[in-house]
Fold this protein.
Amino acid sequence: MPNYQAHLLLGFISFVLVLSVFSSLNFTFSGTVIAVCFVACLLASVFPDIDQKNSKGYRAFRATAIILISAWITAVSYKNLALMFLLLGLWIVSSKRILLLIKPKHRGIMHSYKICLVFSLSVAFISLTAIGSSAPGIFAFFGYVSHKLSDKLFN
Ligand SMILES: [Zn+2]
């Protein structure tokens, strides 16, 4: 199984290939759009392994979820400090187990073309709204596909 660095390398190669295809078709992008395409492609090339317990992606997801849910607990219980500390304590102690319960199985749904499409279309929609170009969605799609192919080739 390739590690995240190998996935990033293949994501970078995908970025160069897709950019070459766009260039040969005489498409031009601004520097901002190219930068966002680069980030989208490389993020997509490592994103599927968010379903792997020890991956950097899963650990980043877990840290984000713990912080956001702790913020929510604080927001709904700050008027009663004893209750707030009790809820925060319970959440912090049990968060790792709770998050593992809802984690999809490795190479399950996160490695499917359905999620690949949902991810790419989401990137396309967000980038269209934010920078006026949906091209990052296309780069995200090929970054995601590079992950799936490399998992298959180097199994
Ligand atoms: Zn994978």
Summary: The first helix runs from residue 4 to 24. Helices lie at 4-24, 31-46, 56-77, 81-102, 113-131, 135-153. The pocket of zinc ion is lined by residues 48-49, 111, 147, 151 (CB under 6 Å). The chain has two domains: 1-53+106-155, 54-102.
